[in-house]
Amino acid sequence: MKPAVFDYHAPAIVQEAVELLQRYGEDATVLAGGQSLVPLMNLRLSRPGHVVDLNGVPELDYLTVDGEGIVVGATTRQRTLERSDTVRDLCPLLWRAMPLVGHFQVRNRGTVGGSLAHADPASELPAVALVLQAEVGVVGPTGRRDVKAEDFFIDAYTTALDSAEIVEHVRFPSLPGGTGTAILEVARREGDFAMAGVAASLTLDPEGLCSSARLALFGVGPTPVRVIKAERILEGRAITEELVGEAAAMAVQDLDPSSDVHASAAYRKRVAGVLVRRAIAEALARATGEQT
Ligand SMILES: Cc1cc2nc3c(=O)[nH]c(=O)nc-3n(C[C@H](O)[C@H](O)[C@H](O)COP(=O)(O)OP(=O)(O)OC[C@H]3O[C@@H](n4cnc5c(N)ncnc54)[C@H](O)[C@@H]3O)c2cc1C
Prior knowledge:
about 290 residues; alpha+beta; Uridine Diphospho-n-acetylenolpyruvylglucosamine Reductase, domain 3; Enolase-like, domain 1; 2 domains; five-stranded antiparallel sheet; 12 helices; about 35% helix; about 25% strand; binds flavin-adenine dinucleotide
């Protein structure tokens, strides 16, 4: 099927893109990698009158390191992160998440900003952003603002972006020494969206106690779900197998996933609990240096 008729715009700078979005309001949409938008348009589930293509805006495509972490321009391809030694060394959770996003053909085109802006409940990147306390740099008609990941995801496919705003960059802060991370998911086939998944980060203090734990589940709610009660169980304690079991049980206690053709709610919940347990163990092994 082909998309409904639309006008195509190819701005060369961010300001021009914002002006186009402001001019056409709700009738305009941004095109980045097109991996989600184009299928939606072809199925006529999205019928924008104006498509504003960000691919000709070079200032949005970069990956840089500053004192506080790495900054990724919105149209940076997912595959660029996957192949980056900088991302592997400075932001291993982000690097480990990349191969889980679709197939490499999808990641060759799919962008970091597009994945966050699309806010699919089963997406890996929103959960990673939540765990890493990323900040989303947004630009719109009234200027620039930074939105914390925890304030960015409002509902399924709904973010804190206003209609004339675009994601400009994402900042992923560096994690302190003694931190280990992990991301695990279960999907029907490699490249499919997750039926359930978890991203985890654990930091140990010099005595080996857990000084910070962050856990975010995906595929089990309308947005990525941070499970703070489970994190609290781990913090300030030496992590034992028993404690991991307790945290995993707490993580899924309040979950209310939906059932669909891919998996029942009960299955999703059960799998999420198992994944939390495994992800904590894996992050712990990395924090102690037992695993790379
Ligand atoms: C076969 C297949 C499998 C996939 N599997 C996965 C998976 O396992 N996990 C996963 O996370 N994703 C998966 N995806 C989706 C893929 O990762 C997309 O790349 C991603 O969801 C959207 O990024 P995009 O750059 O392609 O954005 P587009 O498709 O171009 O845009 C998506 C939406 O975001 C908006 N948008 C894009 N960029 C911006 C911006 N800078 N500012 C504001 N709004 C913006 C667009 O207007 C649109 O509404 C899959 C896709 C396919 C086709």
